């Protein structure tokens, strides 16, 4: 299978009433893939939704996504199952977090601002975030495989149909307490709770990656739509994925939140389109 051009668009929008700095979603795309048309060699994409109740959730989500994209080069089969490579991947993230925390605490002490008791308690409990990491490759045929912990989702579109959805399978399955990757979690527990998915792709396919609030809306919309309405939903998401349409996306999100049809939360949307 010869490599095909791939177009990638990404949009990240903080929850209504929050600033960009307060956004706790994060995404990362393989460093060799820039936005626009590129040849599709091995490509890794990761998104993460930091849990607000934990300290430094944004930092943890960012660390997860960057390490997932980087690690895909070294351990391309790390997202295929809970074997040694995946365990090594998770262990490395946790080690990086501990190193960062130690450095942060030392900096606070050196600057005369040691942690207060409530900060120590929150930091000791760790940081939490969802994980969705996807690896695409075209040799010898178009394949994708993914690892997920929590309710950030991947949708594969062919024509005007959703042919794959991972890891949450229906709108009824979105809850308020998804499984999360904790910076101090037991490694065996993380592996047990992580879902692994795989599939094939061909030219003309597209993939949407979304954090939970948008994924829940999208799943419900597709479940309850007629064929013509599904086409409208897909076109809407395609438009929203373009950074230049951010103001339109923000306006739509605001109206959906006000109407109660979408939960007010940070939003990440990534679209990957594989052309001929």
From TrEMBL:
Domain of life of the organism encoding this protein: Bacteria
Q: Which SUPFAM superfamilies match?
A: PP2C-like (SSF81606)
Q: Note the Pfam families from the entry.
A: PP2C_2
Which residues are in the PPM-type phosphatase domain?
28-218
Protein name from the UniProt record: PPM-type phosphatase domain-containing protein
Q: What lineage does UniProt assign to this protein's organism?
A: Bacteria, Bacillati, Actinomycetota, Actinomycetes, Kitasatosporales
